[in-house]
Amino acid sequence: MVAAIQEVVEQGYEGATLTRIAARADVAKGLIWRYFTGKDDLMEATAKVTMETMRQRIVETLDLGQPVPEIIRAALGQAAAQILTHGDELIALNRIVHNLYRPDGDEWVGAGFYEESYRGQEELFRRGQAEGSLRDFDTRVMALTYQGSIDTMLAYLQDHPDVDPREYAAKLAEILLRGVQAAS
Length: 184
What we know:
Number of strands: 0
Number of domains: 1
Structural class: mainly alpha
Largest sheet: none
Number of helices: 9
CATH architecture: Orthogonal Bundle
CATH superfamily: Tetracycline Repressor, domain 2
CATH class: Mainly Alpha
CATH topology: Tetracycline Repressor, domain 2
Order of helices and strands: HHHHHHHHH
Strand content: under 5%
Distance between the termini: 47 Å
Radius of gyration: 18 Å
């Protein structure tokens, strides 16, 4: 997957080839064909693994014993920090998800791509509601809104390297939390 990420970063999605990916990975091209039906199949797997790796990387840094608003602040900060620590993965993921289409012409990335993230976020929001730190709201709607905010933040930070990612994440956290925190 590392070779696929680097190829997409350097050549773009359209310019990436299985031949160069195999060369970067120092494997025979036939080995790639053994596991993947083609470029789109490899790119789909790369996107899924990259997304899961990033999600796990963020979750592992969180102190899940904290009150939910603090977890949200920390998670947004860690997501924004990915720009600084794993920028190539974000670039490749962005290029893949915006260029990969299903055979029927529909975009490959849909709600299913984020389903595991949505479920984890919904669980966190329900926990916040149960602990009394978050008000009552539809946790599914908020999970989609929250993930959309993260995706937009990352795209903005990629396009604006002069913006401090942690400062941006802190401001975003305050905006989101003002909308969902329980009245004190």
